[in-house]
Amino acid sequence: MASELDELQELIIADARKIYSETTIDHAMNPRNVGDMEDADVFARVTGPCGDTMEIWLKLKNGTIANATFMTDGCGTSIASGSIVTELAKGKSVNKARRISQQDVLSALGGLPEESEHCALLAANTLRAVTKDCLAMKREP
């Protein structure tokens, strides 16, 4: 039974390789920075036009993103996009992370099919929302 499941998984991955980059497959199957963060400094939740929701938590240190985590109820490309956007944000200033765009996410993933590009936009928009909260927090007395 285990070998049949392994064979099936290999067939599925082989089909996915026809459509998605190795980076996308890796981040979808082995997402980085997944889960909520109890000691986060800021949090944002965004729902995209397809109905997927993404949440991002950030931990800041001296104006730099020390840690970033995410959760999504979306598909594999939403998972991959959330994973890569948190990787892109870590170690950057809030202002630099705020400028991470849909195209940056798509480039880091090695591209997505046109019908899945909205997942990269959802990740970029969620990061932009959470960094907006960082800047608002900074302005408060």
Mind explaining what this structure looks like?
- It is a single chain.
- 52% of the residues lie in helices and 17% in strands.
- The chain has a three-stranded antiparallel beta sheet with strand order 1-2-3, covered by helices on one side.
- The chain has 141 residues and is an alpha+beta fold.
- The longest helix is centred in the last third of the chain and has 23 residues, at 117-139.
- Strand 2 (53-61) and strand 3 form a beta hairpin.
- The mean pLDDT is 92.
- It has a single domain (2-139), classed as Sufe protein. Chain: A.
- Helix 2 (22-29) packs across helix 3.
- It has six helices and three strands; from the N terminus they run ααβββαααα.
- The chain is elongated, with a radius of gyration of 16 Å.
Largest sheet: 3 strands, antiparallel
Record field, number of beta strands: 3
Separation, N- and C-terminal Cα atoms: 62 Å
Main sheet strand line-up: 1-2-3
Per DSSP, the total helix count is 6
**CATH architecture identity:** Alpha-Beta Complex
User: According to CATH, what is the topology?
Assistant: Sufe protein. Chain: A
**What would you call the structural class?**
alpha+beta
The sequence of SSEs as H and E is: HHEEEHHHH
Tally of discrete structural domains: 1
